[in-house]
Amino acid sequence: MAKPYLYVNFIMSLPLHPAIVHFPIALITAALILHGIQLWKPNWLGRVVGLWLMGLSTIFSIAAVLAGQKEAAKAGEIGYPTETLILIERHETLGNIVVWGSIVFFISWVYLFFKYKNDIRLDRLALAFLLLLFMIVTVSAYTGGQLVYIHGVGTP
Hints:
By secondary structure, the protein is mainly alpha-helical. The protein is built from 6 helices and no strands. The longest helix has about 35 residues, at about 80-115.
């Protein structure tokens, strides 16, 4: 009979970053699209849909960065070429920008939402920040894809 700690070690050794990282990408994209629809057709959706999705995205992006730091430490032990390590560093920087940008943007959006409840300018400003965050997430996802599919980082 297997010992319970073997299961815990197995679970802890699984790479969580690839499993978690898709949630912030999808949630930020959904927030951008649905918030844009809400601006275009206000009666179709509530004003808080994009806000809720941004909140969920913030939680998942924090988890993705924490899991990514663990994976980056593993990659540092393997000894990849300099080009790959530079790309890992760029991916980490973009991930940190996404996380901190998400945190600041979400907290600001919540504060301003309650302070200026019916101001359409706030919704337009939020759409602009969502678009900016979406572009940063897209570049970060692209560098992550390069790391996996071109440089073989995180693959067996």
